[in-house]
Amino acid sequence: MSSPAAAPAVQTARHGAVLVATLHNPPVNALSVEVRRGLLQAVEQAEADPEVRALLLVGAGRGFIAGADIREFGKPPQPPSLPDVCNRIEACSKPVIAAIHGAALGGGLEVAMAAHYRLAMADARLGLPEVQLGLIPGAGGTQRAPRLMGLKPAVELMLSGRHLGAAQALETGLVDRLGEGGDAAAAGLAYAHQLLAARAVVRRTCDGSLADDVEAARATLQQIRAETATKTRGLFSPLKIVEAVEAGLDLPFEDALRHERQLFLQCIDSPQRAGLIHAFFAEREVVKAPETRDHAPRPIASVGVVGGGTMGAGIAVAVLDAGLPVTMVERDAQALARGRANVEKVYDALVAKGRLSAQARAAVLARFQGSTAYADLAGADLVIEAVFEDIAVKHAVFAELDRVCKPGAVLATNTSYLDIDAIAAGVSRPQDVIGLHFFSPANIMKLLEIVVPARVSPEVVATAFDLARTLGKVPVRAGVCDGFIGNRILARYRQAADFLMEDGASPYEIDEAVRAFGYPMGPYQVSDLAGGDIGWATRKRRAPTRDPRARYVQIPDRLCERGWFGQKTGRGYYLYPQGSRTGVPDPEVLAIIDAERQRAGIRPRRFTPEEIQRRYLAAMVNEGANVLREGIALRPLDIDVTFLHGYGFPRFRGGPMKYADTVGLDRVLADICEFAQDDPLFWQPSPLLVELVGQGRNFDSLNRL
Ligand code: T1G
Ligand code: NAD
Asked: Inter-axis angle of helices 486-503 and 523-530, to 10 degrees?
C-alpha cells in the first residue's frame, strides 16, 4: 500500500478576498526547495485569481520561517533560488502580508521583508543571524533591512546575529503592527482585511532608500568596517556584510542584489562556513545520546551541592539561575561561610552593575540554604559533590550521601580526573552515581561533560541530560578514563606544547601561534589564568605511574617550585605587574627555560608559527582519535563540541576533528609520522586514524550513531 502523499509544504486557502499561504515544513519551516516552490506557486495563484485581493503568508507549528534550509548548503543548488522567490513576492501586484510568530530568521525574515506589510505576534523573534554560520544574508537582506530599519541598526543586526523581539521590531520599523492573541493566522487575516478596507496599496521595500545622506552613510560604514575588522579578527563573512550594504549606496537595487549574491557565494565556499555550520548541527546532535532516546529523566526539583569552593559555589549559582532551590553542605561553619560568600559575590556583582535588582537578588538567595549537616540533603532529588580532588575524601562524602539521601536521588561527582567507577563501587546504589563535570566558572561555562560509569542506569544518564537543558548547558556524553574527553586530550597537546618550548620555541611564540590559529588565548596564558598549581598537583599524582621512557619536560615544575602559579601569584609564564590581568613576557622565565634545555642537553631550534600549530593540533587530533576508538566519546562531533564549549577552540574551524577533516586526515597522519621520527613513543599514530586514512574515510563518517 502506497504511503499517503506528503502534505504540500505550502498550503493555500481562500478566506474571502485573502489567499492564505501556510508553510508546513516542521520543525522550523526551513526554506527547503519544496517550500520555495510552494511560495512561488502561492504568489502565482494569488495573481491569477481575480477574487483574490491580498496574499497572507503564515507559518504552521512553532514559528514563521527559521531561514534557508541549512542542510542544503554545500549541495548543488535547486531552483528556484531564494532571492528569486523574494523578488517575486515583492513584485506581486496585490498586497502581500507576513504574519510572524516565533522565529523569522535569516531567509525567513528576508521573505517577510520582501512582503509589503508585516505583523508580529508577541512571541516573534526576528533576526539575520547568517554571520553565525559564516554567511551573509543572501536573499536581499543586506538591501531591504537598511531600507526598513535604517542603515546603522540594520548593519548592527546583521553583524551581531541577535534576535529582536516583537516590540523592538516594531520600534525599528521591521514590522508595521503587533498582533493580538496567540493565533498568527487569525491576527494576520484581520490585518489583511483592515488593509483591504483601507485600500492599502502594494508597498515595495526596494522602493525605499538605503540612506538619505549617502556620504554620511559611507562614513558610518567606514567606521563600522574598522571596528568589525578588529572585533572579528580572522572571520570571513562579517566584512562581507559591510561590503554588501555599501554596494547599495552606489548600485541600483537589482545590481546591489546581484553583488550581495556573489559575496554570499564566496561565503558558501569559505571553510569557515563549513566549520560554523558543523558546530550548529553538532551542538544539536550531542543532546541525542542513546540513553535520552529510550529513557525518561527523573524529575529534579531540589539540588544539593557538597563543597562551596570554586566549583561548588559556581554550580550552586548555575542551579539557582535555573530557578531551583539549592542546599550547600560544607565541612564546617567557616568553610560554609566562605561558600555562601562565593555565591553571594556573584549576585552582588550583578546588582552593582545594575543587571539585577536587590529584590531579585533576595529572591534568588532565598532559594539558597547552607548547612554543615549531611542530613539536610535527605530530600534532595540530586546531589552534586565538588570537594577536594582526593579519592579518599570523595569516598567519605559518597558514604555520607549513601547514608542520608532518599532512594532514587541522583548522586553526582564533579571530579576532573578521578575514577568514577571506583567512587560508585563505594556505595550501595552504584546505578544512581554519575559524573557531572562542570568547567570553571561553572555558572558561565556552557560545557557539561556527562561522565557515564559502567553501572549507572540509563534513566540517570537521561536525567543528567535533562538537567543540562534546565541549566542551559551544552552536554557531552563521556566515558570513564583519566580526564574523560576534554582534560585527557588537553594533557596531550599541552605536552606537545611543552616539547616545543624545550626544543626552542618560547612560550610567548607558542601562545602567539595558537592565537593566530583562532584561539582567544594560548596554552601558557591559560595556565596562568587557571593556576599552574592545578596542573602541578596532577603531574605529581601521575608521577608514580608515569612511563619512565616517556619524555618529561620539567620547565613547568621549575616555575611551580618558585610559587609562580600565574595571575593569582602575580607571575607565572608571564609577569602581571600591579595585578594587571594582561601578562608581559618574563626574561627570568626565558632564562629558566634555557637552563632546562642545557640540563636536558637540548640545542634549541626555531619553529615557525605554522610548525607550532601543526604539532599542537596533531597531538589533539591523534588523542581525539584514541578517545573515539576507546568509546570514551561516542562520535567525533562530541569531541568537537567539548573543545568549542570548554577549551576555547575557534568556532569557525568547527572543532579539532572537523578541522582535521578540513585539512585531510592523510596530512595529519603524515605530520604525526614525521614527528614520530624524533619521539616515536609520544607520536604513536592512533590506530583509528591509520584505519580511516587506509579506507579513505574521514571523521565525519563516524558522526552518525
Ligand atoms: N535549516 C535546517 N534545519 C534547521 C534550521 C534551518 N535553518 N533551523 C533549525 N533547524 C533544525 C535543527 O537542526 C533541529 O533539528 C530542529 O530544527 C530544531 O532546532 C539566504 C543563507 C530556529 C531559534 O541561522 O537558530 O537563511 O536536531 O533544536 O532551540 O539569507 O534552530 O531536531 O533534527 O535549534 O527551538 C539562518 C537557525 C539560516 C536560524 C529554534 N537561520 N536556527 O531553536 O530548536 S541561513 C538561522 C536556530 C539563511 C539566507 C541565509 C534555531 C531556532 P533536530 P533547535 P530551538
Ligand atoms: P576547592 O578547593 O576550591 O573547594 C573544595 C571545597 O570542598 C572546599 O571548600 C572544602 O571546604 C570542601 N570540602 C572538602 N571536604 C569536604 C567534605 N568532606 N564535606 C564538605 N565539603 C568539603 O576545589 P574546587 O576547585 O572547587 O574543586 C572541587 C572539585 O571540582 C574537584 O574534584 C576538582 O577536581 C573539580 N573541578 C575543578 C575545576 C577547577 O577549575 N577548579 C574544574 C572542574 C572540576
From this structure: 120
Q: How many CB atoms lie within 10 A of CB 210?
A: 24
Q: What is the three-class DSSP state of 513?
A: helix
Q: How confident is the model at residue 1 (pLDDT cuts 50, 70, 90)?
A: very low
23-81 pLDDT, tens digit each: 999 999 999 999 999 999 999 999 999 999 999 999 999 999 999 999 999 889 999 99
Find the ligand nearest to 449 CA.
2
Distance CA 604, CA 520 (A): 27
Helix (H, G, I), strand (E, B) or coil at 125: strand
Nearest CA to ligand 2 atom 25: 310
What pLDDT, in 10s, does the model give residues 342-370?
Answer: 999 999 999 999 999 999 999 999 999 99
Report the C-alpha gap between 397 and 401 in whole angstroms.
6
Q: Computed over its alpha carbons, how large is the radius of gyration of the chain?
A: 29
SS3 65: strand
Predicted TM-score (pTM) of this structure: 0.96
CA pair distance 231, 214, nearest whole angstrom: 25
What residues flank ligand 1, with Cβ below 6 Å? 27-28, 30, 66-71, 82, 103, 105-107, 110, 129-130, 133, 135, 137-139, 141, 281, 284
For 389-423, give the secondary structure using H, E and C.
CCHHHHHHHHHHHHHHCCCCCEEEECCCCCCHHHH
Nearest ligand to the CA atom of 161: 1
pLDDT of residue 4 exceeding 60: no
